[in-house]
Design a protein that fits this description.
The complex is a heterodimer of chains A (224) and B (413). Chain A is α/β, with parallel strands linked by helices. Chain A is built from 7 helices and 10 strands. Classes of the chains: A alpha/beta (224), B alpha+beta (413).
Chain lengths: 224, 413
């Protein structure tokens, strides 16, 4: 489902061009659960951003679910993110002033879904995450684990094929982190492809395949 | 489509409610600006009304023809005289001038020669004018009691008079003066008519009309006045043109006839109400423009207030913008979101300002009796201006938000 070939990506820091990805090629099939690991500066977050269509590439080709990403316009990328990808962040990134339910509804606002349909599907997603009883709570009234459940519900609400998670347990204690991993397993069983960046071996162990990056290149890939 | 706007609108309201104090301050800024612009508009409208309702009472088509005192004959001798006599006037009264509808000779008393006007030891300092039958019509004078002058009054040099309300008050008090007698110098006159009171507030306040008060006049037949003074001179002519725009043409036609008669000795010039009105209109427009510019500054400050809080808001919500982009918001979605917030602020300010401005106008209209209620046009313009202020001041912050890179925005602390 994910097909990366010869991906190069550099950032300019002042006048110096800093290469972050130096020719990454990677195939991920539908239904896989992949962890991306590596020391800081190895390019794992950049790779995740590229796969999540949040960042463009300098050279190389990328196709996701049959769509050519490396040539897509900004608007096309927004649509691809909206339809094919769900995001889970370390800091949850819920909008503080609106309820959990409305947070989950957000992706559907950009697809122009009818309000009644939005509400129905948002509630279903919250139920799936076992957090429907907190639907009317503001994010500040929820614990970290609860907030991450709401964030995952938001990621799932448009039924994406791909879930992209950047340190999803990074702000949680290990018990809660474990619960979140259990949810990831359930989603994966149900067919969602998951790509997750983590630096914890214990968390990475939940994935079926671990890719290790070093200096912008894949150093080790136990699924290749 | 409707759902789309309800959604975006409710999102904007949530965001604005989140920073209620800041939002209210910005709303207030715009409200003050809009109210100030409306207040200036209303005041200038009131001024216009005041001025033109007064000018109107003097006849919008009026014009005056008189000798140009700067004239000199070829021998560089300055001649005495008014330059207009009864023969000239006869020539003008026939069909000489197609742009002139009516004309009246005006004979005024000699300068510096005081004529005592009295009735039973009550005195009047009214301005004495000898006029022809047409004058009251030309000058929009309404005769509230009695009758106007007739041709017979002129030809027979009758001793009859039409009095302004102040002259009536001074000579007869509250009693009805029609048919009563009074003296001008040593001649006895009978009152045949009374003029309606004219508004003088504006013209008196700027000291126009030589300090004369239209309400303190005594009109008598010009022939009678000439007889009293022992001459056949006419001081000037007052005429009514067929239309306001034709007033200067009418004046030219009259002057052409006068020149044929007396061109060797005298030159003539004219005034028209039309030029007074145009001059006055220009002055009033200029004053209104200055006021509106001044009031617009407060609107500008209000707009800058919105720009400021929108910039702050974009900065504070950088991560939110990143998230929205990650879950599928396009540039135009983000742009619209922030523009809408700015427009909601400015429109709410506009509505409040409009309410305040309209309320103030209505109160002012009640107090002064002027028709000052803002027109639908003004209200629509004020609303359009409010929306425009929101769009203009929200544009730059919204564009900055829309152009944020999702990765950098998400990383923002």
């Amino acid at each position: 489902m994910i097909n990366l070939t010869g991906i190069h990506k550099s950032y300019s820091v002042g006048e110096v061009l800093l290469p972050v990805l130096r020719g990454v090629s990677l195939n991920v099939n539908a239904g896989e659960f992949v962890a991306i690991m590596g020391p800081s500066g190895s390019g794992k977050t950049t790779l995740l951003n590229v796969i999540g269509c949040l960042d463009d590439v300098d050279t190389g080709t990328y196709t996701l679910a049959g769509e050519t990403v490396d040539q897509a316009s900004d608007d096309d990328l927004a649509r691809i993110r909206n339809q094919h990808i769900g995001f889970v962040f370390q800091l949850f990134n819920l909008i503080p002033r609106i309820s959990a339910l409305r947070n989950v509804e957000l992706p559907m606002i950009y697809t122009g879904e009818h309000p009644a349909e939005r509400r129905k599907r948002a509630l279903q997603a919250l139920q799936r995450m076992n957090i429907a009883d907190r639907a009317d709570h503001a994010p500040s009234q929820l614990s970290g684990g609860q907030q991450q459940r709401v964030a995952i519900a938001r990621a799932l609400v448009n039924n994406p094929e791909l879930l992209v998670a950047d340190e999803p347990t990074g702000s949680l204690d290990s018990a809660t982190g474990h619960e979140i991993m259990m949810l990831f397993h359930e989603l994966n069983q149900a067919g969602t492809t998951i790509l997750m960046v983590t630096h914890e071996e214990e968390i990475a162990a939940h994935a079926g395949r671990i890719i290790r990056l070093k200096d912008g290149l894949i150093a080790n890939d136990d699924g290749a | 489509m409707l759902n789309f706007f309800i959604d975006r609108f409710s999102q904007a309201l949530f965001a604005l409610k989140d920073n209620l104090r800041r939002t209210l301050l910005s709303i207030l800024g715009i409200a003050v600006g809009i109210a100030a612009v409306m207040a200036v508009g209303t005041i200038s409208k009131g001024g216009n009304y005041l001025v033109f309702s007064e000018l109107e009472t003097f006849g919008l088509n009026s014009l005056w023809v008189f000798r140009d005192r700067a004239d000199k004959n070829p021998n560089r001798m300055i001649r005495e005289g008014t330059g207009i006599n009864n023969d000239d006037y006869q020539a003008l009264s026939s069909d000489c001038c197609p742009a002139v509808r009516r004309i009246s000779a005006i004979v005024s008393g000699s300068r510096g020669k005081r004529i005592i006007i009295q009735a039973n030891n009550r005195y009047s300092n009214a301005q004495l004018q000898g006029v022809d039958t047409a004058l009251t019509t030309i000058a929009n004078d309404v005769i509230v009691q009695g009758r106007p002058f007739r041709v017979r009054d002129m030809t027979s040099r009758r001793a009859v008079a039409i009095l302004g309300p102040m002259a009536v008050e001074d000579l007869f008090g509250a009693a009805s003066p029609i048919g009563r007698e009074f003296r001008i110098g040593n001649r006895k006159f009978t009152v045949i008519g009374v003029l309606e009171t004219k508004s003088r507030d504006f013209l008196a306040s700027i000291g126009s009309a030589g300090g004369q008060d239209a309400n303190n006049r005594i009109l008598i037949p010009y022939t009678t006045f000439q007889q009293m003074q022992g001459h056949k001179k006419i001081n000037y002519l007052q005429a009514e043109a067929v239309t306001q725009a034709q007033a200067s043409v009418a004046a030219e036609q009259l002057i052409a006839v006068l020149k044929r008669h007396n061109g060797r000795n005298f030159a003539y010039k004219s005034d028209t109400m039309d030029t007074y009105i145009n001059t006055t209109q220009r002055i009033l427009d200029g004053v209104a423009m200055i006021g509106i510019v001044a009031a617009s500054v407060s609107l500008l400050v209000g707009g800058m207030g919105i720009m400021n809080i929108m910039s702050t808001s974009v900065l504070e919500r950088t991560r939110e913008i990143g998230l929205r982009k990650a879950i599928g918001a396009r540039r135009r979605d983000i742009m619209l979101q922030f523009l809408l917030e700015a427009v909601v602020i400015s429109t709410m300010g506009g509505i409040i300002g409009l309410t305040l401005g309209t309320g103030a106008s209505i109160i002012l209209a009640e107090l002064t009796g002027f028709p000052l209620t803002p027109s639908v046009t003004v209200i629509i313009i004020a609303l359009i201006v409010s929306v425009a202020v929101g769009i203009i001041s929200g544009y730059l912050p919204a564009r900055r938000a829309a152009r944020l890179h999702p990765v950098e925005a998400l990383r923002y602390e």
